Every structure is written in structure tokens, then in C-alpha cells.
Amino acid sequence: MQIAVIVISVIIGIEHIGFMYIEMFGKPELQAKSFDMDLDFVQQPAAQTALKNQGIYNGALGAMLLISLFVFIGDVKFGVVELIMMFIAIVGCYGGVTVSKKIFFVQMTPALITLALSMLI
Fold it and tell me: For the residues of 39-106, what is the DSSP string, one character each?
């Protein structure tokens, strides 16, 4: 069970770094397609600023998750993973309601699965 939690956590961490890349460095066409947004909106300077700000949070979250898997051991490691997964699930739920239903499946569901598995350890 611990290995499953670690593997899924690594995937989620990499996923969030991928979100960061798209939000901070992706072309507006890729951003619009990835996040189900209108291209005209994504091209606006204010939208670009907001995406880049959101990107730094996603990158930090992904890095924090990945680093925590190597820094902490035992129960502390899985406690930190649970805390991060709760945060990701809440953010994913909000994004699923406000931005795109796809976020429920891409962000929230993997976090909830990982959270449930880690609580079984």
C-alpha cells in the first residue's frame, strides 16, 4: 500500500509541475486548450498574469510533494502526503466547480484516491 501511495504521489507531483509549465511558459493556444478557456481571454495580459501566478503555486505544490517523499520518513512522510492531498482535493473541487469539470478527474480524484490509500496504512 505504501508503494502505491508513493507512486501515485510522484505522478501527482509531476502533474503539478506540468501544470506550472503550461501556465507559466505555455503558448496561449496550449493554455486555452489545456484549461478549456477561450483563446481571446487567455491572450489578455491580466489573464497571463493570473495564469503565471497560479502556475507558481502549482509548481511549488508539485515540488513540495516530491521533495517531501525524500525528506520525511515513516508516519511523518505519509502525514505530510495526506495534508498535501487534502489541499489538492479542495483546490481540485473548487476548480472543478468554477473552471472545468475535467479538473474533478485530473486533479481532485487522484488526490482523493491517494488520500484514501494513505489513510489505510
Answer: HHHHTSHHHHHHHHHHHHHHHHHHHHHHHHHHH--HHHHHHHHHHHHHHHHHHHHHHHHHT-THHIII
Q: What is the pTM of this model?
A: 0.92
Tell me how far CA of residue 87 lies from CA of 43, 46, 48, 50, in angstroms. 29, 26, 24, 20
Find all residues with CB under 8 Å of 39, minimum gap 6, and list them: 28, 29, 32
d(CA 116, CA 85): 10
CB 67 within 8 A of CB 13: no
Largest Cα separation within the chain, whole Å, is 48
> Could you report the per-residue pLDDT of 12-27, keeping only the tens digit for each?
999 999 999 999 999 9
